[in-house]
Amino acid sequence: MRRDDKIILAHGSGGKLTRSLVSETFLKKFTHPALAELDDAARVRIGSDRICFTTDSYVVKPLFFPGGDIGTLAVYGTVNDLAVMGAEPLYISCGFIVEEGLELSLLDRIADSMAEACRIANVSIVTGDTKVVESGSADQLFINTTGVGLLPKGREFGIERIVPGNRVIVSGTIGDHAIAVLAAREDLGLKLDDLTTDCAPVNGLVRKVIDRFDGVKFMRDPTRGGLATVLCEIAESGRFSVHIWDEEIPVHREVKGICEILGFDPLYLANEGKVVMIVDGKIADEVCDVLRSDPLGVNAAVIGEIRADNPGDVVLHTVIGGSRLIKMLAGDQLPRIC
Predict the structure, then answer these.
(1) Domain limits at 285?
(2) Which end of the chain is more exposed for a tag (fewer CB within 10 A), N or C?
(3) CA 28/CA 7 separation, integer angstroms
C-alpha cells in the first residue's frame, strides 16, 4: 500500500488492508508494548491488579437487523473482546455520535437495548458522551464503547502458547451475523425465515470452559474478517500450520444458501457471538461437550488441528479429499456489518 493511497472501505474489513493500515500508520507512532500485541484487548497493570482494556466503534448499516441492533452489538462486542482475553468484564463507557434528524424514538429503542444487554452480560455503563453532527455527516448513528475487566491471576492466553497437537474449536455456526445484516439491507430484498444475528455475550460461555480446564491456549471472537482471518493471524507466527476440515465447520443452511447465490465464503463472514478456541488436543472433546451444554454453544465443533508442517499456512481440507490454502482477504465481502 503506497503512503499516498486514500482510505477505502476495505481498510475496515479486518483483513490485509486493515493490518497494513494499523502497522504502517499507527504502530509506528503508538509504541506501547500492550498495543503491539494486537490482541482483542490490552493487558495492563494498575498497582497490583491486572486489567484488560478495550475499545471499539460501531457503524453498522442498518441500525436494526434480525435479532439485534447497533446498541446490543456495541455492548456485546466490547464484552466479548474482554472475555476472550480471560477477563471478567465489568464496566463500559459509551460515546454516541448522532446525526441531526435521527428520530428520538429510535435512539430510545437503542438505549433500551443497551440497558438490557448490560443486564444480560452483567456489566454496567458508567460514563459516556454525546455529540450531534450535521445531517449527512454520520449516517444516523455511530457508537463507540470502551470496556474494562479484571484479569484474574493465572489466566494467560495467547498465540505464543499454541503448539502442534492442539485442536481448533468454534463455538457455533459461522456467518450468521453478516448474513442477518445483509438481509436487512432493503436494496437486496433478501428474506430469511430462521436466521438472526448471533449477537450475544460470550463471557458466561467462556467462563464455563476456563474455570474447568487448564488446557485452553488461545481464544478470539471471529468478528470482522471471520474465522479465516483469525486462523491466518494465528498462523502468522510462523511456528506451525493450521489445518481445518470443511465438513466439520458448522454453517447454518440459510447462510450456505445465500453464500452460494451471492458468491460469499462463510469463512470470511463476521460473527458477533462466537468464540474460536485453541486447546490441548486431549481435552478438545470435553471442551466441546461443555460448550454444547450452553444455549450459545449447542453447535460447537472441533474443526481442525495445529501441525508442525508448512509453518505459516492455513489449509482447508475439503469434503472431496482435496485441500486449499486459506489467505487473509485484501478486500471486503460485506462492509458496515459491525
Answers:
(1) 159-325
(2) N
(3) 18
